Amino acid sequence: MQFVEEIVVDEFLPTVRSLLAGALRDRGLTQSEVADVLGISQSAVSKYAHGDVATNDRIADDERVEALVDELADGLAAGDTTPVQALIEIEVLVRELETGGDLLAQLHEDTVPELADHGSSFRVHDPESDLRTSERVLSSLRRGLRILENASGFATLIPAVGSNLVACIPDAEDVDDVAGVPGRIFDVKGKATVPSDPEFGVSEHVASVLLAARDHGADVSAAINIRYDPKLLAELTERGHVTAEFEEGSDIVSSVGAAIEDEPEATVLYQTGAMGIEPLIYVLGSDAESVADTARSLI
């Protein structure tokens, strides 16, 4: 069993690093400078320079790889491109080459021929496949949860019922299409605690709010619930969010829908509570990371 990520690590990265190291040396950088730019050791640069690192000719000869290496080498050598910018550009190319039928996908299927014969209903390299779509949502959700876990003070925003950060697939129809934290996020001795990895179909309430907002035209794919506080609402408004109140009740779809229809640009929904119902704020956004960042900014 071999994953496409192993092709990236074992074939693509050594090849691109070798090409970049050579291109930077050609532009006058010392081995020490090349090592600093690429974030590797001088001995590794020496190995690249002497051809001691195996590279993949199919990757090295790809026109897009060649063009990006030249562009990045020019920018890094001149100081116009930072290592982080170069990393992002390479990541973008990796994603492009992983899609169905492209270079990395071909290399993967050459290594694991059974993938190509698996059937038309599922292709692991199809960027729109259900599996890859779901994994992208879960990956985004994990990153968002890490933001919250590492945010000192987030526990102060968790309501008594607990928080949940949720995210959905693009064509979500019901709670099974929404991923969240089983058991919710709780304040345990002043620390936000995520009890287990996110899964689909485990959030009922926050997922329902997200789906209801989407059903009534909100262009959002993630949400989180935090404790209600007028000061938090005011701060969110100051940060450019549009807020809308809805009435908590048995028909959450209608009440959230009415709020969205009144304020179509709303990215913050709230309800002030009722008998036995805790008041809550719901922050909506395009993905789990941006929603988590918004929540973190309130600390």
TrEMBL record:
It comes from the Archaea. InterPro entries: Aldolase_II/adducin_N_sf (IPR036409), Cro/C1-type_HTH (IPR001387), Lambda_DNA-bd_dom_sf (IPR010982), ThiN (IPR019293). Pfam families: HTH_3, ThiN. Residues 20-48 form the HTH cro/C1-type domain. GO terms for molecular function: DNA binding. PROSITE patterns: HTH_CROC1. This is HTH cro/C1-type domain-containing protein.
